[in-house]
Amino acid sequence: MYKDDILNLISQSPLEINTEIQMIGRPPTMANSEFLTNKEQGDWAEKIVFKAINEYSNDYFAVEYGRSESIAAGDDGFADFYTNYQNELNAIGKRPDILIFKVSDFPDRTVDIENDENIIQAVAAIEVRSSSFLADKYSAFMRDRQELSINRCTEIRDAILGTDMGNLLRRKNETIYNLISTATNDTFRELDFRCPSWSLTEELRNLTSLLRRLKENIKILHKRDYLSITPKMEDIALVNRWIQKYNVKHFYLQVFFDKAYTISFKDILTLVSNDNHDGNNFSIERDVKNQGKTTIKINIQIGKEILGKIDMPEHKSALKELDRGRLLFYVTFEGGKGYLDSKIFIRDVINA
């Protein structure tokens, strides 16, 4: 049974996930412009996925299921809304944004999302995440940056070993000499050494300068160079709570402004349980753009490109006036279209 597989993966996970977690927190008192823009972008991403699925086939249809209220911190009634939302998380877990059903089960495409008997008939649940990048352009930029840094590493290595500085380095620090003399284009990213600060002679100063430049380019190769699908750590237990209640397959779907990728919740748990993938196919970071929450960042190439193309939406400025007269300016998004890859949708979501 699906929910049992998920619970088993969580019990074996090195992440030490607290499945009994209770969300207890004080509601924020004030929204800001960045929050409002992020919410607008998230709402737009959900609409792109929702429409793409419903335009694809007569066999399946999508239903909006997650919380969609436009209320924000500082609005009248927000404190009660926040408390009710916390209570819901503690009772049934985190609702996915979209549920997918068979048309044959609901011929009129009408689903009561407050009826548990209806919910358990869903064939898949999707949590939609959004990101302010063009995936193709980001990948090309990072690919070029990595290639440039590798070329510079090679040039610096050759400038050292191809002159008398090579013998000087071997005499002063044989460990560093052995590291760089055996490095290749594929292994420069694996190097790490403490840069010396030799300065007695001009030759030593030149060698130190080259080693510092080599170290700087190696640091670039150490940086994460992929866009990611971004489940928050605290959400894992809450997603599991919902799965344990409804036993519906769960997926994350990351929407960029040119395409979107999906990965199953089950594959996420499997991936992060293998430390051989840590730092390569995923990383775990405190996300400063998300209130410092710990976030799993999974290489989008591990997922499936479920929307191979997204038309850019229109965007415009909007403002929100707070009670005391403060104005918050933010961005809204309208239009755009996502193009669903039907093969991936059927193979990796419906039949997963």
CATH fold assignment of the largest domain: Trna Endonuclease, Chain: A, domain 1
Indicate the percent of residues in helices: 40-55%
| Shape summary | elongated
Overall residue-averaged pLDDT value: 91
Count of domains: 2
* Number of E-state strands: 12
Largest sheet: 7 strands, mixed
Strand content: 15-25%
Order of helices and strands: HHEHEHEHHHHEHEEHEEEEEEH
Poorly predicted runs are none
Helix-strand makeup class: alpha+beta
Radius of gyration: 25 Å
Query: Based on the structure given, which CATH architecture of the largest domain is correct?
Result: 3-Layer(aba) Sandwich
The CATH top-level class label of the largest domain: Alpha Beta
Question: How many helices does DSSP assign?
Answer: 11
What strand line-up does the widest sheet have?
Answer: 1-2-3-5-6-9-12
Question: What is the CA–CA distance across the termini?
Answer: 13 Å
How do the strands and helices of this protein lay out in sequence?
Blueprint: H1 2-12, H2 33-54, E1 60-64, H3 78-92, E2 98-102, H4 116-119, E3 124-130, H5 135-161, H6 164-172, H7 174-181, H8 202-222, E4 228-229, H9 233-246, E5 250-255, E6 260-264, H10 265-272, E7 282-287, E8 293-299, E9 304-311, E10 314-321, E11 327-334, E12 337-340, H11 342-350
Parallel strand pairs: 3-5
Antiparallel strand pairs: 1-2, 2-3, 4-8, 5-6, 6-9, 7-8, 9-12, 10-11
Helix pairs in contact: 1-9, 1-10, 3-9, 5-8, 6-7
Q: Could you please describe the fold and organization of this structure?
A:
This protein is an alpha+beta fold and 352 residues long. The chain folds into two domains: 2-133 and 233-350, Trna Endonuclease, Chain: A, domain 1 (3-Layer(aba) Sandwich), CATH 3.40.1350.10; 137-222, no CATH class. Helix content is 42%, strand content 20%. It contains eleven helices and twelve strands. It has helices at 2-12, 33-54, 78-92, 116-119, 135-161, 164-172, 174-181, 202-222, 233-246, 265-272, 342-350; strands spanning 60-64, 98-102, 124-130, 228-229, 250-255, 260-264, 282-287, 293-299, 304-311, 314-321, 327-334, 337-340. The strands form three sheets. The chain has a seven-stranded mixed β-sheet with strand order 1-2-3-5-6-9-12. The chain has a three-stranded antiparallel β-sheet with strand order 4-8-7, with helices on one face. Strands 10-11 form a two-stranded antiparallel sheet. A hairpin with a 5-residue loop joins strand 10 and strand 11 (327-334). Helix 3 packs across helix 9 (233-246), helix 5 packs antiparallel against helix 8 (202-222) and helix 6 packs across helix 7. The longest helix has 27 residues, at 135-161. The model has no long low-confidence stretch (mean pLDDT 91).
